[in-house]
Amino acid sequence: MHSKHRRLTIPMATAAVLLGLVAGADTNDDARTIAAIDTQYQAAVESGDWQTMDRILHPDFALVLGDGITHPRQRLLDSARNRVVVFEKQVEMPGTQVVRMYGKDTATVTALLWVKGTRNDGRPAFDYKLWFTDTYVRTGDGWRYAFGQASLPLPQG
């Protein structure tokens, strides 16, 4: 009986390891997908592509800035549609993006963002960097950007 137990244990252990590798592969695939979506979102903001932003943003999306101001989803879409801000740059600085998975349905992306552009309301042009954290959730329609938080502009230098 002891030898039967041993024969069953080895295949079970092998199956458990393989299942763990498959789960890890899924997590890595999700992390790559989220990284690409977040990069695509930044490019959409930069180009004023509100349709892509609309597709990526969760219906209950909110962005909280470092000064506490909260921007709901519709405000961001309207701003892009109306070209309230014209971005020359809205890009993640190379090598700063980190995706962290929390279970199978939640992830965060943190990166250093360079924003440069003008506003159509007469305020001066801007050019600064800030840190952000974006939270993504898996929905029935795929990964959606649900919540963002951005730091105040970093000191120049």
| Low-pLDDT runs | 1-24
Order of helices and strands: HHEEHEEEEE
Which architecture does the CATH hierarchy give at level 2?
Roll
Q: Which geometry do the CA atoms define?
A: globular
Calculate Rg over CA atoms.
21 Å
Helix-strand category: alpha+beta
Question: Which keywords apply here?
Answer:
157 residues; alpha+beta; Nuclear Transport Factor 2, Chain: A; 3 helices; disordered N terminus
What is the secondary structure topology, with strand pairs?
Elements: H1 2-47, H2 50-56, E1 57-64, E2 70-72, H3 73-81, E3 85-92, E4 98-102, E5 106-119, E6 126-139, E7 142-150
Parallel strand pairs: 1-7
Antiparallel strand pairs: 1-2, 3-5, 4-5, 5-6, 6-7
Question: Can you walk me through this structure?
Answer:
With 157 residues, the protein is α+β, with helices and mostly antiparallel strands. The protein has a single domain, classed as Nuclear Transport Factor 2, Chain: A (Roll), CATH 3.10.450. It contains three helices and seven strands. It has helices spanning 2-47, 50-56, 73-81, and strands at 57-64, 70-72, 85-92, 98-102, 106-119, 126-139, 142-150. Strands 1, 2, 3, 4, 5, 6 and 7 form a seven-stranded mixed β-sheet that branches. Helix 2 packs antiparallel against helix 3. The radius of gyration is 21 Å and the shape is globular. The protein starts with a helix and ends in a 7-residue tail after the last strand.
